[in-house]
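Re: weekly structure request thread

Next one in the queue (315 aa):
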Amino acid sequence: MFDPQEFMEEMVPDIRSTIKGKAIIACSGGVDSTVAAVMVSQAIGDRLLTVYVDTGMMRKGETKTVDKMLSRLKVNHKIVDASEEFFDALKGVVDPESKRKVIGERFIRVFEREAKQFHADYLVQGTIAPDWIESGDDTRDTIKSHHNVGGLPKDVQLRLVEPLRDLYKDEVRKLARHLGIEVSERQPFPGPALAIRIMGPVTREDAEIVREACAIVEEELERAAEQGKMVLPWQYFAILLPVQSVGVHGDNRVYGKTIAIRAVQSIDGMSAAYSKVPHEVLELISVRITNEMKRNVNRVVYDITNKPPATIEWE
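Done, posted below.
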């Protein structure tokens, strides 16, 4: 049985003895990176700089939310807008593995710049067990390269510290509750962010479309769960598909994009079952997306595939 207090008592001195100088950590505002940031901050204080990178592909309102949360947690942090360089780096990139590697490398380059200014020698990451398991190695197949593992460039100049490396998601959540972190129950959000929820090339326009669709999915499923209509899924979001189909708006024939909805139940992310969302809730989501985004989207579908054979994210 995982004991968060025991884990902290073991890891904080270990982190303190490992990190001799200054360190930098990337924090997306998700449970893994936030827990890692708070843990290391407790170990080395202001010798840690927590960097939130706005890639232009974050969830709606994410930057302001994370800034407020890190301030409340009294973590030394900085917000960096690097959206232009991420979109430039991803221009024309379609292959999912290539996207992850491009994003991983770009993150490292941003952190190297920030680390140089901060005079840091260490890079802390919120890597957890499923990240390195799914990224593969000499003995395991690669399911998908997580940007903080398989996406790391070989010439990274910083020494890596991964205090959560042996934990699974349910254990990280227990640790977050122990530390009083408000995102302890927050659904997972991928490191590459909305880039891997856009099937095909990543553009600012498509990022805005899938950001709005994800927000609608989150709002309606959370409302339905609060009203007792369903159990809140473990993870739930929207995907923008690289297909268009014929539709009708008023008396006009339109050719619009397609949004897929994904919602799953899981414990640790290693396996998952699709959520049996009530049809009335799915209909409400579909109506909202096609009405509020009618200039771009005219069709909504629901993914009913388990993991395995599918993964939770589509890329």
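The first strand starts at residue 23 and ends at 26. Residues 203-302 form a domain with the GMP Synthetase; Chain A, domain 3 fold (CATH 3.30.300.10).
Next request, please.
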